[in-house]
């Protein structure tokens, strides 16, 4: 009989009006990788907050047993003392401090009240080696990419003598190769006897590393699956997550590709801060009516930079190149002009760049085209309300009213509000940057259906995504991008993950 | 998908009672209730002096310039900035007006527009650096605060300049004459009160009926009636009280018109909506095609103009321009806006809230002075009220989550 390192028994947590967790059970064996899956809002994060002491002992019902003893954490410091360390989705690093300072932040090497810096740097260097980072421990964290920052977070956890490592969607912002490295690291830790809980949406990761899986749905634990005993398919997990079968992850569409809508030629962009760095090199592409065009590429390949530079020069300096819409060369040098021309850009970061979170669905829906609901500068609220109601229904945004603030919506519903906003600006071409990031499986399907509907309505869609299966499932044509250049173009029929990867690698 | 959560909230919204409605809108009505309670308290503590017509008139005259600046400051704060220079601008514009009217004998009809334009330019210059050069508003306006205080001293050569011609004094101390010729009570004042309250009730009823047509009204009918009867009653009663003294002061009209205009601008116009979007999330606003720089520039230019208006009224009230005029006004104005529920991080706040916030400060100043409480304790109490108001706001916000 293996040792159970952690057992959460009958955890129930109520917020005013809402039961966030209802009798949830979770058992983690010593030295295993335990995947925790569930749709957004299912209660995974709440459960981990209970475990780490963010919600202190007494504010929930049920017991936490760690190494067989009942724990009563009153804060994160208590759980960390026991070796339970959580790495949040949003990294908690200070960009202007060095790696070493970050790794030992709140856990400083103190001798007589004074920090022993040489020891700190040396210890950090050892930890960095363990996580496979070659950087100097004096490097500023802000200089590192997201993938490396994630590794710094893990080094930080190791510095605290971790016994149970909890990773909340660690790979959501990572590229496939960085993700793979991270997963390998988890396997290595497992060999050293460190247990981990992995919260993730990516089912392929689970099948790669997880020893067992707990599925949470609507605040209750639905099932625990043992991967070593049973052969578990992704379909099984999805069924447990959403409570229904999801026959096809990508809705079918008959492409009716029409006239040439947008053409971009000789597009060159330089870095906004250092003018000698060229970010985009001679990019040429086009989109036709009714066509969904994908842009594949690793993070940092310049996909977002390309999209934002096209959309009113929102990124970069010294931008050169030509954009034509319906055969006419157009001026897209400012955002209002780009919108006027019929371009729309749905950002990859909807909370930071896409939405006014404090405002209502109604306000967000009409924001990019207030002219259409106003006359002589005065907004007609009656029209505005009718319009936002129409979009709420058409997009199936799940909310009691359009007066709901968007910060209270789930990720999928928020994304639908962003899409409503841009559809209401009546574009011909939509550039969608990671349209399904951080959205659960069910909502993804709905977003895909909306994209298909757009194409059927004769719009041109450019879809940027890090998830290759998504591009393969949705796009009529895929451009492959690497280091600011397009290195290949594939038709739906020819495209495969292997081909895309080899184009990137061989570029 | 949060189906469980949604059904709960839908049910809760299906039939709100007056109690639950008030609870969920505590943030909207909390400060108004606080103002009424504070007024009631001082009315009691001062043995009825607070609401005496003469004192009430005084209360409006004393606070008009703070309220006028609070309107502009609300826009600045909603846009996500702050303006520390307004107190100095009040002093500078007062000095400018004094030099023009007293030293150069220019007529009021010239002095007033010139001063307003000067304020607009001052605000515009500060706004230019903030909007187009992205220099933090705190720094630009801190510099402005020093510069214009210094320029006030220069203009006045360190001395008080006055008195102003009587036409200029009317800006503050003038009253609307009684067109009906009754005198006391001033029938014009009562008539204006009745007209204003009817317009307010009419607009409220129209909005409600439109909302009902779309089935999106959750305000209980009883609540609607009681609210509007109270508002109309309060306005008419105030006008009646004022009518038994000297009638409606000119500044009250100026203030009322400005409040009406800016309430309309913030609630119903494209530019108002965009200011809220800018403050709520500047990057998202920019990517939605909003010219955020120009908007920031305009809010500061507007603030400068309103500060100039306040400076004229203040100078007219004192009937002299002094080097210290407007000293520390920016703090009262900023406090009023935050008491009124605006958010430090921008994007949230209402004109009427800022006005109520200014009145809370004003009533406290006035009431405590009548009671003979020293300036030392007045400051302490005002400071605590500001803190309490913001704590109340934050508490409500957290509860709502």
TrEMBL record, chain A:
Pfam families the record matches: ABC_tran
Keyword line: ATP-binding, Cell membrane, Hydrolase, Membrane, Nucleotide-binding, Repeat, Sugar transport, Translocase, Transport
SMART domains: AAA (SM00382)
Source taxon at top rank: Bacteria
Subcellular location: Cell membrane
Protein name, UniProt field: Xylose import ATP-binding protein XylG
Gene assigned in the entry: xylG_2
InterPro entries: AAA+_ATPase (IPR003593), ABC_carbohydrate_import_ATPase (IPR050107), ABC_transporter-like_ATP-bd (IPR003439), ABC_transporter-like_CS (IPR017871), L-arabinose_ABC_transporter (IPR053466), P-loop_NTPase (IPR027417)
CDD domains reported for this sequence: ABC_Carb_Monos_I, ABC_Carb_Monos_II
PANTHER family assigned to the protein according to its UniProt record, in alphabetical order: CARBOHYDRATE TRANSPORT ATP-BINDING PROTEIN MG119-RELATED, XYLOSE IMPORT ATP-BINDING PROTEIN XYLG
GO function term, MF aspect, one: ATP hydrolysis activity
Organism annotation: Marinomonas spartinae
EC top class, as a word: hydrolase
Topology with respect to the bilayer: Peripheral membrane protein
EC number of this enzyme: 3.6.3.17
Domain ABC transporter: residue ranges: 6-243, 264-503
GO cellular component terms, A-Z: plasma membrane
UniProtKB/TrEMBL annotation, chain B:
Topology in the lipid bilayer: Multi-pass membrane protein
Transmembrane segments: 29-46, 58-79, 86-104, 110-130, 137-156, 187-205, 221-245, 251-276, 297-319, 325-344, 351-371, 377-395
Subcellular location: Cell inner membrane
GO cellular component: plasma membrane
Membrane in keyword set: yes
CDD domains: TM_PBP1_transp_AraH_like
Keywords assigned: Cell inner membrane, Cell membrane, Membrane, Sugar transport, Transmembrane, Transmembrane helix, Transport
Pfam families the UniProt entry points to: BPD_transp_2
Main localization, broad class: membrane
GO molecular function: transmembrane transporter activity
UniProt family annotation: Belongs to the binding-protein-dependent transport system permease family. AraH/RbsC subfamily.
Function description: Part of the binding-protein-dependent transport system for D-xylose. Probably responsible for the translocation of the substrate across the membrane.
Xref: PANTHER family: ABC TRANSPORTER PERMEASE PROTEIN YPHD-RELATED-RELATED (PTHR32196), XYLOSE TRANSPORT SYSTEM PERMEASE PROTEIN XYLH (PTHR32196:SF32)
NCBIfam families per record: GguB (NF040906)
Name this polypeptide is given: Xylose transport system permease protein XylH
Native organism: Marinomonas spartinae
Taxon lineage: Bacteria, Pseudomonadati, Pseudomonadota, Gammaproteobacteria, Oceanospirillales
Encoding gene, per UniProt annotation: xylH_2
């Amino acid at each position: 009989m293996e040792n159970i390192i952690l057992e959460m028994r009958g955890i129930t947590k109520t917020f005013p009006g809402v039961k966030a967790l209802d009798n949830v059970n979770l058992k983690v064996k010593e030295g295993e990788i335990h995947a925790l899956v569930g749709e957004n809002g299912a209660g995974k994060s709440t459960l981990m907050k209970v475990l780490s002491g963010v919600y202190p002992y007494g504010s929930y019902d049920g017991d936490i047993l760690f190494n067989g003893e009942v724990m009563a954490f009153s804060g994160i410091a208590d759980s960390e003392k026991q070796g339970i360390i959580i790495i949040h989705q949003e990294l908690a690093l200070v960009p202007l401090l060095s790696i070493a300072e970050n790794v030992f932040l709140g856990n400083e090497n103190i001798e007589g009240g004074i920090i022993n810096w040489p020891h700190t740097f040396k210890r950090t260097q050892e930890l960095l080696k363990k996580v496979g980072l070659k950087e100097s421990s004096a490097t500023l964290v802000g200089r590192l990419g997201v993938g490396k920052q994630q590794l710094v977070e893990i080094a930080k956890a190791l510095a605290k003598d971790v016994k149970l490592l909890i990773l909340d969607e660690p790979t959501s912002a990572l590229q496939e190769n960085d993700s793979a490295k991270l997963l390998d690291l988890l396997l290595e830790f497992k060999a050293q006897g460190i247990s981990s809980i992995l919260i993730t949406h990516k089912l392929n990761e689970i099948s790669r590393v997880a020893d067992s899986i707990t599925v949470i749905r609507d605040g209750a634990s639905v099932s625990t699956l043992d991967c070593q005993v049973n052969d578990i398919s992704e379909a099984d997990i999805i069924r447990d997550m959403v409570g229904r079968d999801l026959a096809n992850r990508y809705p079918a569409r008959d492409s009716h590709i029409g006239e040439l809508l947008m053409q971009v030629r000789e597009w060159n962009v330089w870095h906004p801060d250092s003018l000698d760095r060229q970010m985009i090199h001679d990019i040429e592409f086009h989109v036709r009516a009714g066509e969904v065009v994908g842009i594949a590429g690793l993070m940092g390949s310049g996909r977002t930079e390309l999209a934002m530079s096209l959309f009113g020069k929102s990124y970069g300096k010294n931008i050169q190149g030509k954009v034509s819409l319906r055969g006419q060369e157009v001026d897209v040098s400012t955002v209002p002009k780009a919108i006027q021309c019929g371009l729309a850009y749905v950002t990859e970061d909807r909370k930071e760049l896409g939405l006014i979170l404090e405002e209502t669905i109604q306000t967000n829906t009409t924001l990019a085209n207030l002219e259409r609901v106003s006359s002589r500068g005065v907004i007609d609220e009656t029209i505005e309300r009718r319009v936002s109601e129409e979009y709420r229904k058409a997009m199936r945004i799940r909310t009691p009213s359009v007066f709901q603030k968007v910060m209270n919506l789930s990720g999928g519903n928020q994304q639908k509000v962003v899409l409503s906003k841009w559809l209401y600006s009546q574009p011909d071409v939509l550039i969608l940057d990671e349209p399904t990031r951080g959205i659960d499986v069910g909502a993804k399907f709905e977003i895909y259906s909306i994209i298909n509907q757009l194409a059927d309505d004769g719009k041109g869609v450019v879809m940027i995504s890090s998830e290759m299966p998504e591009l393969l499932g949705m796009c009529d044509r895929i451009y492959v991008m690497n280091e600011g250049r397009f290195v290949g173009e594939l038709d739906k029929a020819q495209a495969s993950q292997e081909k895309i990867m080899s184009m990137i690698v061989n570029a | 998908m949060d189906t469980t959560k949604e059904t709960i909230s839908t049910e809760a919204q299906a039939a709100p009672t007056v109690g639950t409605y008030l609870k969920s809108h505590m943030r909207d009505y909390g400060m108004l209730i606080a103002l009424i309670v504070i007024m009631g308290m001082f009315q009691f503590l001062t043995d009825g002096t607070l609401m005496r017509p003469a004192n009430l008139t005084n209360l409006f005259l004393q606070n008009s310039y703070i309220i006028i600046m609070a309107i502009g400051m609300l826009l600045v704060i909603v846009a996500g900035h702050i303006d520390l220079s307004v107190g100095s601008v009040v002093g500078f514009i007062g000095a400018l007006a004094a030099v023009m009217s007293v030293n150069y004998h220019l007529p009021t009809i010239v002095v007033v527009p010139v001063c307003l334009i000067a304020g607009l330019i001052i605000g515009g210059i500060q706004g230019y650096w903030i909007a187009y050069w992205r220099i933090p508003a705190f720094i630009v306006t801190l510099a402005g605060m020093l510069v214009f205080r210094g320029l006030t001293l220069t203009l006045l050569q360190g001395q008080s300049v006055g008195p102003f011609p009587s036409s200029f004094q009317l800006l503050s101390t003038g009253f609307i004459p009684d067109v009906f010729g009754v005198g006391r009570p001033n029938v014009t004042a009562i008539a204006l009160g009745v007209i204003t309250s009817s317009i307010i009730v009419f607009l409220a009823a129209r909005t409600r009926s439109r909302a009902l047509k779309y089935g999106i009204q959750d305000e209980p009918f009883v609540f609607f009636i009681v609210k509007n009867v109270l508002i109309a009653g309060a306005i008419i009663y105030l006008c009646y009280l004022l009518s038994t003294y000297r009638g409606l002061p000119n500044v009250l009209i100026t203030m009322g018109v400005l409040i009406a205009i800016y309430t309309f601008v913030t609630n119903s116009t494209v530019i108002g909506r965009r200011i809220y979007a800018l403050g709520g999330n500047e990057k998202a606003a920019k990517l939605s095609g909003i010219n955020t720089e120009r908007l920031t520039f305009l809010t500061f230019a507007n603030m400068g103009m309103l500060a100039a208006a306040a400076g004229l009224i203040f100078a007219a009230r004192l009937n002299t321009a002094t080097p210290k005029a407007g000293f520390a006004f920016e703090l009262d104005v900023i406090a009023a806006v935050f008491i009124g529920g605006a958010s430090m991080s921008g994007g949230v706040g209402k004109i009427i809230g800022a006005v109520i916030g200014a009145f809370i400060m004003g009533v406290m100043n006035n009431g405590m002075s009548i009671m003979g409480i020293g300036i030392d304790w007045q400051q302490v109490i005002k400071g605590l009220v500001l803190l309490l108001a913001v704590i109340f706001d934050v508490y409500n916000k957290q509860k709502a989550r």
